[in-house]
Known about the structure:
The chain is mainly β. The chain is 5% helix and 48% strand. It contains 1 helix and 11 strands, in the order E-E-E-E-E-E-E-E-E-H-E-E. The strands form 2 sheets. Strands 2, 4, 5, 6, 9, 10 and 11 form a 7-stranded mixed β-sheet that branches. A hairpin with a 4-residue loop joins strand 7 (68-73) and strand 8 (78-83). The chain is globular. The termini are far apart.
Amino acid sequence: QVQLVESGGGLVQPGGSLRLSCAASGFTLDYYGIGWFRQAPGKEREGVSCISSTDGSTYYRDSVKGRFTISRDNAKNTVYLQMNSLKPEDTAVYYCAANFLISAQAMCRRTALDAWGQGTLVTVSS
């Protein structure tokens, strides 16, 4: 069974850092675009950062550029989201997702993807 499991969420102060991990099982990430999405309370899910299945190009929504970094380790079937300089508005449930053969930009634009994790809560508060 295809499965993605997020971890690493928690409570962090504004300006702090957190690294999220997404472990995949049931398939290899080699040919999959990987993305991080988030949903804040009362808001729609939005693409945060995605990485291409092919050339490794990345996408970041404007609000996280320069603060977040997406990466992948195909050997470990794991993707990461390093989040620095966190702000209260980053508070959300963060989900990882995978989609076969897709660009970073296209992936982060979509709402329906091949596989989703269960989410991990990130709370940025003093």
